């Protein structure tokens, strides 16, 4: 028999290119378009209000050269406002068109991928059939069968031609997808050029009242202080394109530049070492933190809308979970997870996103989403000498004298001090996605302590798992029966012990080639009663695991591992590595949850290749529940609509794709959002504001506090983590 050839080498390129549009969010683009439309409306309202307010001064009420200059000035502002409105309307229209085009491109790419895969599968199946027939003729010739003749083409030629054919299909799909991607990129670049385009005759072309025009220069922004609701470029209430989707930082818009320059002058007057050379760096921070909107309030500490939450009703989407549902959260007093009530559900639009990832785990969140960490901490040595034992030397300072003595002894006497000791903290604390450092150890799972909500015994929990794995549920003329089949001798003995006092019959089939096969058939009345109390061992397995007590769930997981798992003890390890194999479906979902609730981090792997006659297969393994911050990379993930919950314990259980993990809940109700141009929280702003600059929403005041905090914490503006990351080719991270 000829082996199925699988996908051609070019197929990897098809999948890689198709994945580029998987997270494309047309709705998010439309949201930005709507914000530009609203900005245009608001700007028009300001112009109308200004015109109405000054109309009463006309008609002879006020006349003369000063009045003429004033009315001319008002007219220029109105004309400039109209040009800004026209530009905002044009951007809004182009963004709406863009989201429709990108949505079509996304659908076309997925259709091309699916059609190409179907064509390749059909070609492979047809080629295998033809090659098998040709191979049969070849075998007949080799066997000397009378009348047999070599086929033309041969089986090898058939498969070679098929390989060339499927490669052509994949190459065609790849090139077609690339053409669509190029088209999409061209449209995006065209719209981005429009977004960045200066407005000829905008507000910056209007000279201050009483001064002579000095040559109009364009600007997309509005003059003024904190009272304006507008900002240049992509700003304005989160209307910017975020940390990964927009243009690189360059010159700030006119109004933001004025705010930065004024803030620099105020700080220089106080002896703070900032100069105009820092303008672009400050703008880079502002651009990524607030988009240039002085009224931005960041209540985001959330996850994307496709992240699901675990409840007693199973996995729920953001629009399905209700206040009063319960989820699994971490109890720091007991060190275990448990059911905790959901006290609130929050949603936010167009939030910045980051992706934390290593080779085995990932999660997408907003930058200030919270995680539990058990960090590596330094243990302070006590009892170290504060006077040199060798020569009686005294340190000059009373601050950390033991450190001074240790340095002296090393240099003068060659005495090496004890090595610094670090331990892993057993007291969890919260850390945000943007704050994760190498010392952090993110806690993603903890063993659950849950009460029994299922009317079964611990033994029956194990029976349910055996049936879910190696068992069968039959319904013969409305008489349900359940059976378990097993041929491994040690597991047969385990089943015999498990089923003591459980009504059943045992049949032995010794006709197979793998030794005697034992079939344990449970009594009809017992089967009916167990199903009535617990539900189907297979289709209801997720609900069963969620309703089990800790002891019941441990028995269920142990039995399922016996039935469908493998235990491998690798050299150098004291515990065997366990993998449970199962086809995708309810039982695999239940196994994943049971592993998670046991205190391990489940990792689900899907088989990459299989014969056409085999079912899809996956495996779930229990990995360490802690992920080191040193192994995690952080990259910008664009912007999107987000959601989160608040819970009694401050944590909840989330799922992103096949990753199940413990995470922190929303802090929106705590009342500590970051605010303003540089997104400072109230306590930070109050600590670093200058006298006379106490309005967090005033752009100049906010810049002063943000810059002073940055310089205090990082030594200089250039050392801000986001700017350092960008200078090395990475994405922006919050400060």
TrEMBL record:
Name the PROSITE patterns for this protein: INTEIN_N_TER
The UniProt keywords, alphabetically, are:
Coiled coil
Record field: compositional bias (Gly residues): 221-244
Coiled-coil positions are 88-140
Which domain of life does this protein belong to?
Bacteria
Question: Which portions of the sequence form the region Disordered?
Answer: 204-255
Ranges where the Transglycosylase SLT domain occurs: 664-719
Q: Which GO terms are recorded in the biological process aspect for this UniProt protein? A: intein-mediated protein splicing
Q: What is this protein called?
A: Transglycosylase SLT domain-containing protein
The organism's lineage is: Bacteria, Bacillati, Actinomycetota, Actinomycetes, Pseudonocardiales
């Amino acid at each position: 028999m000829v082996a199925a050839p699988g996908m051609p080498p070019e197929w990897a390129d098809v999948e890689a290119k198709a994945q580029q549009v998987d997270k494309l969010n047309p709705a998010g683009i439309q949201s930005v378009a709507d914000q530009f439309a609203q900005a245009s409306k608001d700007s028009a309202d300001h112009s109308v209000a200004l015109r109405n307010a000054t109309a009463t001064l006309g008609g002879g009420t006020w006349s003369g050269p000063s009045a003429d200059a004033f009315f001319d000035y008002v007219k220029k502002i109105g004309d400039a406002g109209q040009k800004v409105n026209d530009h905002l309307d044009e951007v809004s229209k182009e963004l709406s068109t863009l989201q429709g085009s990108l949505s079509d491109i996304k659908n076309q790419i997925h259709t091309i991928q699916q059609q190409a895969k179907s064509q390749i599968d059909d070609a492979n199946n047809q080629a295998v059939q033809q090659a098998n027939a040709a191979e049969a003729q070849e075998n007949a010739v080799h066997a000397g069968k009378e009348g047999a003749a070599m086929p033309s083409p041969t089986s090898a030629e058939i498969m070679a031609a098929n390989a060339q054919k499927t490669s052509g299909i994949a190459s065609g799909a790849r090139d077609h997808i690339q053409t669509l991607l190029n088209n999409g990129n061209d449209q995006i670049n065209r719209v981005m050029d429009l977004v960045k385009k200066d407005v000829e005759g905008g507000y910056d072309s209007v000279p201050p009242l009483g001064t002579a025009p000095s040559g109009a220069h364009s600007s997309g922004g509005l003059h003024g202080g904190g009272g304006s609701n507008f900002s240049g470029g992509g700003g304005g209430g989160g209307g910017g394109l975020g940390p990964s989707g927009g243009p690189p930082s360059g010159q700030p818009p006119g109004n933001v530049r004025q705010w930065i320059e004024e803030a620099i002058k105020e700080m220089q007057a106080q002896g703070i070492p900032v100069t105009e050379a820092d303008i672009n760096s400050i703008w880079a921070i502002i651009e990524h933190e607030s988009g240039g909107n002085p009224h931005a309030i960041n209540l985001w500490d959330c996850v994307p809308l496709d992240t699901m939450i675990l409840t007693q009703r199973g996995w729920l989407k953001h629009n399905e979970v209700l206040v009063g549902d319960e989820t699994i959260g971490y109890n720091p007093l007991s060190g275990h997870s448990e059911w905790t009530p959901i006290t609130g559900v929050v949603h936010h639009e167009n939030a910045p996103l980051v992706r934390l990832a290593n080779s085995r785990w990932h999660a997408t969140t907003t930058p200030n989403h919270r995680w539990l960490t058990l960090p590596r901490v330094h243990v302070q040595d006590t009892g170290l000498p504060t006077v040199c034992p060798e020569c009686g030397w005294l340190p000059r300072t009373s601050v950390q004298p033991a450190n001074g003595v240790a340095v002296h002894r090393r240099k003068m006497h060659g005495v090496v001090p004890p090595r610094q000791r670090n331990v892993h903290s057993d007291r969890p604390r919260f850390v945000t996605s943007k704050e994760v450092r190498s010392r952090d150890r993110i806690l993603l799972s903890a063993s659950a302590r849950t009460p029994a909500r299922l009317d079964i015994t611990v033994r029956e929990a194990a029976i349910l798992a055996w049936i879910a794995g190696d068992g069968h549920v039959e319904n013969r003329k409305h008489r349900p029966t359940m059976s378990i089949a097993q041929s491994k001798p040690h597991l047969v003995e385990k089943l015999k012990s498990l089923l003591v006092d459980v009504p059943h019959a045992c049949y032995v089939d010794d006709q197979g080639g793998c030794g005697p096969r034992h079939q344990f058939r449970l009594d009809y009345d017992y089967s009916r009663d167990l199903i009535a109390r617990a539900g189907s061992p297979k289709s209801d397995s997720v609900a069963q695991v969620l309703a089990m007590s800790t002891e019941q769930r441990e028995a269920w997981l142990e039995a399922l591992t016996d039935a469908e798992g493998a235990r491998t003890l690798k050299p150098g390890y004291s515990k065997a590595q366990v993998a449970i194999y199962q086809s995708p479906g309810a039982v695999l979902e239940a196994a994943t949850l049971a592993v998670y609730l046991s205190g391990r981090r489940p990792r689900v792997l899907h088989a990459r290749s299989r014969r056409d006659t085999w079912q899809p297969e996956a495996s779930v393994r229990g990995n360490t529940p802690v992920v080191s911050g040193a192994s995690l990379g952080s990259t910008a993930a664009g912007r999107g609509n987000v959601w989160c919950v608040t819970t009694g314990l401050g944590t909840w259980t989330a799922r992103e794709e096949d990753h199940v993990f413990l995470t922190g809940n929303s802090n929106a109700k705590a009342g500590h959002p970051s605010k303003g141009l540089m997104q400072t929280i109230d306590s930070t702003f109050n600590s670093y504001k200058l006298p006379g600059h106490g309005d967090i929403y005033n752009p100049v005041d906010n810049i002063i506090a943000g810059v002073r905090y940055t310089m205090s914490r990082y030594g200089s503006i250039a050392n801000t983590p986001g700017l350092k990351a960008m200078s090395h080719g990475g994405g922006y991270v919050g400060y």
